[in-house]
Amino acid sequence: MIGTTDRMPVDYAQYYLYGTNYVEGEDHEALRRIREGNSVAAAAPDHLAVSCGTHAGSIRLSVEGRVDPPGPPGADWETVVDLSLYSVTGELGVQPWGGEAADEAVRGNLAVAGAGWYRVRVETRGRDRGRALNVANPWVEEHRLTLWPAPPARDHVHRVTDEVGTATYDPTRPAGAPITPPIAASSADESLLRAWARSAGIAIDDNRPIPRSVRALATATGFLPTGHHGEP
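^ that's the sequence the OP posted. Answer follows.
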């Protein structure tokens, strides 16, 4: 799925990706994690919050759901961050603040591989112009979101060069860690673990127990909490 709109509504300098079962407001710590983290985005299961410079009005937004990683980010993007997001439902779509519908051009499912872990690249430019105007219509700020299936990993900041970002981003702080689904953290649900293994390119036999080595790898990457090695 690929799309671009010049009419992506933003309010309170934010917009989102939602899963179909996400309850609005459930990830109430997202904005704090953005300020204390990579300065532009924070993810939780079935939810991504993105921070803009524009307080209200519109931005230009391009989205792409793909099956393989993108190439290196272009030099004309001022802030570029990769982070991990878990899709519980296998559906992830653009969602403006306040529950209104996104423009049809970007209204589609970005979770192209179904439920499981995805990497999200957030690219922005013009956040300083948006902050200076406060309300922008037509747009002066542009974002691009790219999603592809990939094992979970800590945030990777390619660059943060705009003033909106450098005001809070501290490269000496530890990179943000992916947030696992509650069911995986509490009971190591086998269906989620098998989906994670497939997204990581690990071949496992669905007719046999999940190998201990796979559980150990899932723990090492942060998908499972420590102590969940289970049966062999």
